[in-house]
Amino acid sequence: MRLSSFFAFVALTISVVTAHPGGDHEHTAAERAQKEASSLLPNIDLHVHEPIAAFETQRMLKRNRLRKRQTPTSTAAEPHYSTIQNTTCLTAPEVIEGPYYINNEYVRTDLTEDQAGVKIVLDIGVIDTVTCTPLPNVFVELWGANATGQYGGFSTGDNTHVHTETFLRGGYYTNANGIVEITTLYPGYYDGRTAHIHTMIHKDWKQHANG
Ligand SMILES: *[C@@H]1O[C@H](CO)[C@@H](O)[C@H](O)[C@H]1NC(C)=O
Ligand SMILES: *[C@@H]1O[C@H](CO)[C@@H](O)[C@H](O)[C@H]1NC(C)=O
Questions:
Q1: Displacement of CA 176 from its chain's centroid (Å)
Q2: pTM
Q3: Residue nearest ligand 2's atom 9 by CA
Q4: Cβ–ligand 1 contact at 186 (below 6 Å)
Q5: Which residues are in the Intradiol ring-cleavage dioxygenases domain (predicted)?
Q6: In percent, how much of the chain has pLDDT > 70?
């Protein structure tokens, strides 16, 4: 089901953006892979055995690429709305980030992967509340629970963080009119909170070679 009529409005100020710099965006894929390789291979001294370290870095990079089933998309369909519909220039209050944020997810406009559920297509407009003009090229990141209330990357049993799943996470950047269209699923219920989708807007962002 496609609900193009759903229009989400996100207002923000620069101070909100700088309060959420988006964590690990500065690290290169190789640095992150090396870090992960070190944590997964505690018995290998990566500095003493340089050739092994280089080999492991390559191996982990390849494995990570294979492990992420979804190929990131770097092209986006035009949003349904060409201009922001609600130009109310107010800062929306920041609310609970929650424990399920994972940074450095894919740059893509369809977050659904192989998850079953009711698709929703969100046209999200971002306005700078200082100048009250649309903000182009800011990264709108979403993350949400799947239809049965589970977050990708967190195990069902004890809620520990596992890195293998990427579903319903990621985002894309706003176009010249400050709008981005992202497809996700209607979030399932989980104990304690009304069904919701999280968002974080990043002003300083860049895309890595691995998506
Ligand atoms: C426009 O956005 C403001 C702020 O989020 C909201 O209070 C208002 O209800 C919205 N108006 C319409 C017509 O959607
Ligand atoms: C939601 O994710 C969990 C964890 O990966 C999975 O077990 C469950 O089947 C998923 N729900 C649906 C409806 O796909």
A1: 20
A2: 0.66
A3: 148
A4: no
A5: 96-194
A6: 62
Instruction: Give, as one character, the DSSP assignment of residue 172.
Output: E
The predicted pLDDT at position 29 comes to 64
- In whole angstroms, what is the distance from residue 43 CA to residue 200 CA? 37
Find the 80 Cα to ligand 2 centroid distance in Å.
29
Whole-angstrom distance, CA of residue 187 vs CA of residue 102: 17
Which amino acid is located at 194 in the chain?
A: T
CA 123 to chain CA centroid, nearest Å: 16
Distances (CA, A) of 115 to 4, 100, 168: 20, 18, 8
209 in Cβ contact with 107 (< 8 Å): no
Looking up tokens 């620069």, which residue turns up? 14
Structure tokens at 116: 């079953």
Mutation test residue for ligand 2: of 70, 115, 118, 150, the one with most atoms within 8 Å of CB: 150
